[in-house]
Amino acid sequence: MTQETDGWSVGTIIAFKQDAATTQAYLQLLENALENGKLTSEQLTTLLMQQDKEGWSVGTNIAFYRDATTTQAYLRLLKKAIENEKLTSEQLTRILTQETDGWFIGMFSEQLTMLLTQQN
Q: Residue 99: which H helix or E strand, with range?
C-alpha cells in the first residue's frame, strides 16, 4: 500500500493509465482479496482513497476517465463490500464523498447515470 513520492500508487496508475480491462482486473483482485480475508476493510478504504499529488484517487480516476462498465465494476465492489459487512457505512461515505477539485465520485456517477438515461 505504498505510494510514490509524487503520490501515485499502483491503484491510481492502473485507474488512470491502463485500459478498462486492466482496471476491472484490479478491481476483481481487490474484491477477491477482501472476500478471502487477505484485505481488511481499512486496507481497502486506504487503497481506494490514496490520492496522487493532484488529489485524484482510484475512484475519481475510474468515475471520470473510464467507461460505464468499469465504473459499474467499481460501484459493484463497494456494494459487495457493504453487503458482506466488509465495509462500514462510514467508510463508504468517506470513499464516495472524497473530493478532488470540488468533484466527488457520487457526482461523477450521477452524471454518468443521467447521460446513459438520456441516450436510451
A: strand 99-100
Is 101 domain-assigned? yes
CB 45, CB 77: distance < 8 Å: no
What per-residue confidence (pLDDT) applies to 119? Answer: 44
pLDDT at 107 over 70: no
Neighbours of 79 (CB within 10 A): 13
5-17: buried (b, 16+ CB within 10 Å) or exposed (e) per residue? eeebbebbebbbe
Asked if residue 56 belongs to a domain, the reply is yes
The structure's pTM equals 0.78
pLDDT in tens, 45-87: 999 999 888 888 998 888 888 888 898 899 889 989 988 899 9
Q: How many structural domains does the chain have?
A: 1
Containing structural domain, residue 89? 10-119
DSSP three-state, residue 104? strand
